[in-house]
């Protein structure tokens, strides 16, 4: 069932982004009276799952879900229709249109991607608002388990004061800035110190099975008792909070392992908070120092237990457009920083580049419209930015040549554009193979 939910979200998001991106090319092409021969969701190599001709355009769904396309008459694209290009230009063809019209047609796809992302952020802000946590309310620091961080001297209980010398006020600030971090200022019982991250920090993180950074410390909230647990028959309920072991207070779940190891194969007494009342239960610790209890907990639990200063913001309809714009700018600038690191081999960030499997893994196991739309907005930005890269075969490559034509007044020859398209196509295929190869490598060897 989890697979069905994840793949449904993945395909729905991908289909939505592809159709709207291609509509961004299709609409201005039609406005400028340019013939559009095909409009396809997914690729129709050899055959189509569905197709229907309406007017001069064939609309269809291909069988290979790696993208989609519109085939515009008289345009040198991935179809490499040399037969058509060998004919005299016709007034309804792309190549016969003024450069400024061709530029608008080529920029239409990424324009729609950016507008879509902005609109989603605005509507999600209006519908769900925002939830954040003030950093100064995290009195006992963060939970740190990633060995890359612990090897640098960071440990559970450390507080984050600043990233790259810029103070952080909320938990979202930390999550937003950590990708571009070069230094982190932390505070613990020994004082304040600055941790300088290695240049290949992102590369090391990509190689690691653990992608966690600074995690919130949660109480020991009971989710369920496993069937093989020695405590299966004990009166334990979902949302029970274990607050003490043998009379000693237990505030965070990350303290459980060290507390229980010396008590292996023993019976312990625990205090449990249930419906604002404290009750006591006897529990068995197995020979591995475990209770056989699956922990749970979410922000609602943290809020009801008054662990942190949780900020909830709601926005009016018109106010949400300003909030959505700020989120859009934050995401697009953050993704720009990530790309810069990816294209710098010394950072090792390229190891984290993933393909369709990586995108699939982003979606949660349970259906959440809030998460779905948030992920779709980010993917829309990613699709827009990547399409603007000056690589022939991408929109950015066509835009590059059109800008040259507009500035110089000279149109590149069709022969040159055909060769550039071939080169761009091989670059694009190489990038796709590399990204999806990373997915395969991680799946097999990690």
Automatic annotation (TrEMBL):
Its EC number is 3.4.24.-. Keywords: Hydrolase, Membrane, Metal-binding, Metalloprotease, Protease, Transmembrane, Transmembrane helix, Zinc. NCBIfam families: RIP metalloprotease RseP. Gene3D superfamilies: 2.30.42.10. GO terms for cellular component: membrane. Residues 10-431 form the Peptidase M50 domain. PANTHER family: MEMBRANE METALLOPROTEASE ARASP2, CHLOROPLASTIC-RELATED (PTHR42837:SF2), REGULATOR OF SIGMA-E PROTEASE RSEP (PTHR42837). The chain crosses the membrane at residues 103-124, 371-393, 422-441. It is an enzyme of class 3 (hydrolase). Belongs to the peptidase M50B family. This is Zinc metalloprotease. It is found in: Membrane. One of its GO terms (biological process) is proteolysis. CDD domains: S2P-M50_PDZ_RseP-like. Its cofactor is Zn(2+). It is a multi-pass membrane protein. GO terms for molecular function: metal ion binding; metalloendopeptidase activity. The keyword Zinc applies.
